[in-house]
Write a structure and sequence with these properties.
heterodimer, A: alpha/beta, B: mainly alpha, globular
């Protein structure tokens, strides 16, 4: 019995690379299916995922084709460590799928979380392709063409960031715009002024309607919406929470 | 070629190698425990979600590049004879460094893909100086990076040119200096030259016997599969620490020093090391600092240093170079980028 277990463990150890490739192959397939990968990376990068699928398939096939039962080896601790590290991201994926960057990341990434300056992140987007939301204009389009919308009525969606600094009648409406993956996501935000003050929690998704203006605050040009409609909306599905360049 | 490695899909280490890799193994085990500890005890914290999303995103995006890099390495191993490589990049010719630093123009690879390629090139006889010049210059001096920089800076070609030219000069200079300080054998890990990862090689491992094309392709992919299993973990460990750094360090800290040019260069260089961004995406983050009046040399320092040196890359370099060589390489790159941006 002991010998049988030892043989099985040895065989599994010898096959570990193939097992890891097949697990990752399934993961990339799962991410591609239904566009789940958009929760993490830019939709335009889908060929990269196809490439990963093909290469993982080729690696598994090449490995298995050259594998022979003679290659059974004793249990090797380092091989199991390598394998464990290689599948570690999948445990993180399993736990965090369905979540997205929120207030915590916004506060760390926005260069001035209380006020996003118009000649900063927004203008950078002008030469890039943009994504619109289903309802109203996306924050990306709004900030990229801020001067065009100045003084006009707009409707847009995003997440709430409230800080003491902004006062109780004001909050920041923000979203993240991704270049390649969530690691490089840039926060985009517009100040929302509302009367009376809406009680909204940080990270809540809202649709805001009102007059969009460019104003000067502390010597800097900032964008704001004087909102007359602030409506809680359901959180979009994970693959639709980011905007993409 | 009757080495036991050829029938061993995991790769045996001889006794001395086992001894030397014991420390590394312990460190990797500790890393696993740390990561699993975070996963178990902090999975409901917002900071953990940020960390997890950044970690998974970096890995998902970088894995295809690394798979491709190991595949290219496998094909180099099987299809390009050592003699061909040494003819194009001869050991004692200084100009080999100048060619290698510009190879990204015709061979555009990102920093994640280039490490396994360089590993194979070193094994195949590419001189240390040329390998380092390619390692540092390849992810910057390439058309994809030039295009993304141009988009991020509204087609400001002077910024694109500055990035390419400084990236090239620094890659050449560091390659030449590393050659002065180290013999190849002293700088590169023993494992790179050994066949311990040449698993399932069979009799084709010397690549001199005539073999069918299909067999050779299968062998090349087999090499790639083994390389990936062996070095993929370095990308994951690097991506994890990059995610930790991105989660904990606020960017406002870096934007607070824009009035002091030298300090702003230093701070942006530290940020490049901490953020671990892909060389095709970093220009967008650098450009976002214009709103804080960040001086241009500081933005360039960020874009030049990042593809050469960041947490993820340093950890990946451990699979190719010895510790002393990595420390020297890191110091030289940091110093070169800093000085060139200060005098710019």
């Amino acid at each position: 019995m002991k010998a049988k277990v030892k043989t099985t463990v040895s065989l599994v150890t010898a096959l570990l690379p193939a097992i890891i490739y097949v697990i990752w192959l399934n993961t990339y397939y799962w991410l591609l299916k239904g566009g789940r990968y958009k929760s993490f990376i830019q939709p335009k990068l889908w060929p990269l995922l196809i490439l990963a699928l093909i290469l993982l398939l080729a690696f598994s096939a090449a490995f298995i084709s050259r594998f022979s039962l003679k290659s059974k080896i004793s249990l090797q601790f380092d091989a199991w460590i390598k394998a464990a590290i290689l599948i570690l991201p999948l445990f993180f994926l399993w736990i965090i799928y369905g979540r997205s960057l929120g207030t915590d990341a916004f506060v760390k990434r926005a260069l001035n979380p209380g006020q996003i300056e118009i000649k900063g992140d927004a203008n950078q987007l002008k030469s890039s392709s943009r994504t619109s939301t289903d309802h109203g204009i996306s924050l990306l389009d709004l900030l990229a063409d801020a001067e065009k919308f100045d003084g006009k009525r707009v409707a847009t969606e995003g997440m709430v960031y409230r800080s003491v600094k902004n006062g109780e009648h004001t909050f920041m409406l923000f979203r993240f715009a991704v270049v390649c993956c969530a690691a490089d996501a840039l926060p985009l935000a517009v100040m929302v002024k509302s009367t009376p003050a809406e009680i909204l929690d940080n990270d809540a998704w809202v649709r805001v309607e009102g007059i969009f203006t460019i104003e000067t605050l502390n010597g800097k040009q900032v964008t704001s919406i004087a909102a007359d409609v602030i409506q809680s909306i359901p959180q979009p599905p994970p693959e639709k929470r980011y905007l993409f360049f | 070629m009757n080495s036991p490695y050829f029938d061993n899909p995991i790769g045996h280490h001889d006794l001395s190698q086992q001894k030397s890799s014991k420390k590394a193994l312990t460190a990797q085990l500790l890393f696993l425990l740390l990561a699993i500890g975070l996963l178990v005890f902090f999975h409901d914290r917002p900071q953990f979600h940020t960390l997890g999303i950044i970690f998974v995103s970096i890995v998902l995006e970088a894995f295809p590049f690394m798979l491709l890099g190991t595949l290219i390495g496998g094909f180099i191993e099987v299809f390009i004879p050592r003699e061909t490589i040494t003819r194009f990049l001869p050991e004692r010719r200084w100009w080999a460094v100048f060619i290698a630093a510009a190879m990204g123009v015709i061979f555009p690879v990102c920093e994640c893909a280039i490490v396994p390629v360089v590993r194979r090139l070193l094994k195949k006889g590419v001189p240390l100086s040329a390998a380092i010049a390619f390692l540092l210059g390849g992810p910057i001096v390439n058309p994809l990076v030039a295009a993304s920089t141009a988009v991020a800076y509204f087609a400001d070609w002077s910024i694109v040119m500055h990035r390419m030219i400084f990236g090239y000069i620094i890659a050449v200079a560091v390659g030449l200096l590393m050659n002065l300080f180290f013999a190849k054998i002293k700088a590169v890990q023993n494992e790179v030259f050994s066949d311990q990862n040449s698993i399932n090689c069979g009799t084709l491992c010397d690549h001199r016997e005539p073999a069918a094309l299909g067999e050779k392709i299968n062998l090349a992919v087999g090499h790639a599969a083994n390389d990936f299993f062996d070095i993929g973990r370095f990308l994951i460990i690097g991506a994890f620490f990059a995610a930790v750094a991105q989660t904990l360090v606020p960017r406002q800290v870096f934007a607070a020093v824009t009035d002091t040019p030298v300090l702003s260069i230093l701070i942006m260089m530290v940020m490049a090391i901490v953020l671990n961004l892909c060389s095709e995406a970093d220009a967008f983050v650098a450009a976002s600092f214009r709103s804080t009046r960040m001086p241009l040399p500081a933005q360039l320092a960020f874009m030049i240093l990042g593809p050469m040196l960041d947490i993820k890359l340093i950890i990946m370099y451990f699979n190719v170079f010895r510790t002393r060589a990595i420390v020297t390489l890191a110091a030289l790159v940091f110093l070169m980028v800093f000085l060139s941006m200060v005098i710019m």
